[in-house]
Specification:
Chain A contains one helix and eight strands; from the N terminus they run βββαβββββ. By secondary structure, chain A is mainly beta. In chain B, the strands form six sheets. In chain B, strands 1, 2, 3, 4, 5, 6, 20 and 23 form an eight-stranded mixed beta sheet that branches. Chain B has a five-stranded parallel beta sheet with strand order 8-16-10-11-12. Chain B has a three-stranded antiparallel beta sheet with strand order 13-14-15, with no helix packed on it. The chains are: A mainly beta, B alpha/beta.
Chain lengths: 105, 465
């Protein structure tokens, strides 16, 4: 866990699982909100915008803003709408694919 | 395919209370909600909250358990993690659950989709480390996570609530930067009569302010020229109070200047909306039972106009009564008799609202952002870009969208729509109602082709009975 994250679990969950974010291995609390768990683990930014490449991280935490998009199994998903499960393989969405699976019709 | 008398979309206070009341009247109810547990945002994950967390968040939060308990009724089927992306023919609902699309048919539909934070475009608001105050509260409610070295920025009771909860959690904010002014307070005093009728809310407000003072939290009131500084992350907030510039170094910035109805689902089926000047937002047109111009579709709770959690729960029940009458489960007299105490409760809940709305108006600097401030977060469109479209003759948001892509990103305008309407309205001198809003089209949430492919014709599942 990176010590410089400004997000802190008040009462750390002891039941933890291992997930991968890019090349790093993280120990996250099982069943907790994925976006929140990644923030506590010091992950930031979550993605870069497809236009200017600006860094972004969770903003609304309720599935409305799409700034917490991460790539799981090749699909861009909202981290704030997912729960931590064992063995998740998470990637930062590559910029030119950043709206794949999350674009407007 | 699922089939029910009533499909309720959203398991917040309005949706939960409506589901229970309708079920109690003999209707089969299918409750669809995106989250893994019921509660909506206000009662997020309330069933799982520990005793300590309950103490931090207070009884206004843990009270939500009465509503989640009410869902244990044989006529209610609650599908968790159900993301609604389309409503068809005003009776059919498409949603995705566990990676598969599903279809539900209901004789009536109740939209209980709640509220969103009012967009607060200030310089730097897209930086990592900047979140809504609601987001900070959601993390505290659901995951026991606190934001350290935080500054709360904006106006409204939620700022005080989040601040006091952070104090109780042992992670107090560095400061509050509040945008309401003494003139706002003076204007709000003409609503004092209503405020006194809604005295429990006033008392709660005073208690929170007292708690913040006792904790030594600095409040900068009447702030303007607010900007978030930072390169890769938020590193500070700058603002002016009474002509004097301030800078607070921090790691997180929590923005809030009110909440607005989440109208995406209602707009996607062309329910008419009107501009509410007092609340500075669009709200769907509903009658006193929450019925819309689409006769099979009702709306209850903050999605119909901001009133708060308790008002939402009462409105949900009121809609459920009319739906039960409509489907022949009760007479008009029975409906009216049962609705009477609910309506009187609703009146009391709403009494303090005009006072709160005028004492804590939206931050003017975010309603008319500087030209270089990003308004559409997804497509990185600035306020100046929108103003230039007005110069090119764009009268409404849909034209502006075609010119500069504002509202075309994944959030589908949720966090820029009101800003774009307001900027065009100001530029063109045309009221917001005539300026209009984005045309919202399905899918309301992203859905993959694979998920749709899984939408095979299934045997009809009768819900509830």
């Amino acid at each position: 866990m990176k010590p410089d994250s400004p997000f802190r679990e008040i009462d750390p969950e002891t039941d933890r699982v291992t997930v991968r974010f890019g090349s790093s291995e993280l120990s996250l609390p099982r069943g907790e909100n994925l976006a929140g768990a990644l923030l506590v683990a010091g992950v930031m930014p979550f993605r870069h915008t497809p236009l200017s490449g600006a860094p972004r991280g969770p903003f609304c935490m309720m599935g409305a803003c799409y700034d917490c998009l991460v790539e799981i199994d090749g699909i861009n998903r909202q981290a704030c709408m997912l729960q931590v499960t064992e063995g998740l393989q998470i990637e930062r969405p590559s910029i030119n694919r950043a709206i794949k699976g999350a674009g407007n019709a | 395919m699922h089939s029910a008398d009533l499909i309720v979309i959203g398991a917040g206070p309005a949706g939960m209370s409506a589901a229970r009341r309708a079920a109690g009247s003999g209707l089969s109810v299918l409750l669809l909600d995106e989250q893994p547990t019921p509660g909506g945002q206000i009662y997020r994950d309330v069933d799982r909250a520990s005793k300590t967390r309950g103490a931090i968040l207070g009884s206004d939060f843990t009270d939500g358990r009465a509503l989640t308990r009410g869902l244990a009724h044989e006529n209610i089927t609650h599908l968790r993690g159900a993301v609604v992306w389309q409503i068809e023919e005003a009776t059919r609902v498409n949603f995705t659950r566990n990676g598969k699309a599903e279809l539900a048919e209901g004789r009536r539909i109740l939209l209980a989709t709640g509220a969103l934070e009012r967009p607060m475009p200030v310089p730097g608001w897209t930086l990592p480390g900047v979140m809504t105050a609601g987001a900070a509260q959601i993390m505290l409610k659901q995951s026991d996570i606190a934001c350290e070295r935080a500054v709360l920025v904006g106006s409204g009771p939620l700022l005080y609530l989040v601040a006091t909860q952070m104090v109780r959690a042992g992670v107090p904010p560095l400061a509050l930067v509040e945008t309401q002014t003494k003139a706002d307070l003076a204007r709000s005093l003409r609503h004092l009569g209503g405020a006194l009728r809604g005295w429990p809310y006033l008392l709660k407000g005073l208690r929170m302010l007292w708690e913040l003072r006792r904790a030594g939290i600095t409040r900068h009131v009447g702030a303007s020229d607010i900007a978030v500084e930072g390169d890769r992350n938020a590193s500070g907030v700058t603002f002016r109070v009474g002509g004097i510039g301030h800078r607070i170094a921090c790691d997180t910035v929590l923005l809030h200047h009110g909440v607005v109805p989440n109208t995406q689902a209602a707009r996607s089926i062309d329910i008419p909306h009107r501009w509410d000047d007092a609340q500075g937002c669009f709200a769907p047109e509903c009658d006193e039972w929450g019925r819309t111009a689409v006769s099979t579709v009702f709306i209850a709770g903050d999605g119909a106009g901001i009133g708060g959690a308790r008002a939402a729960a009462l409105a949900g029940e009121i809609s459920a009564l009319e739906i039960a009458r409509d489907l022949g489960r009760m007479t008009e007299e029975e409906r009216d008799a049962e609705a009477r105490p609910l309506r009187s409760g609703l009146g009391a809940e709403r009494a303090a609202r005009p006072f709160i709305d005028s004492a804590y108006p939206p931050y003017p600097g975010a309603l008319a952002p500087a030209d270089d401030t990003i308004v559409c977060r997804c497509e990185e469109v600035t306020a100046g870009d929108i103003r230039r479209t007005a110069g090119l003759g764009c009268l409404g948001p849909n034209q502006a969208k075609a010119f500069v892509r504002a509202g075309m990103g994944p959030c589908q305008g949720r966090y820029c729509g009101l800003s774009v309407t307001r900027i065009l309205s100001d530029m063109n001198g045309i009221p917001p109602d005539a300026t209009g809003y984005y045309r919202i089209r399905p899918p309301l949430k992203p859905v993959t082709l694979g998920e749709i492919a899984a939408l095979a014709e299934h045997e009809t599942v009768e819900v509830g009975k």
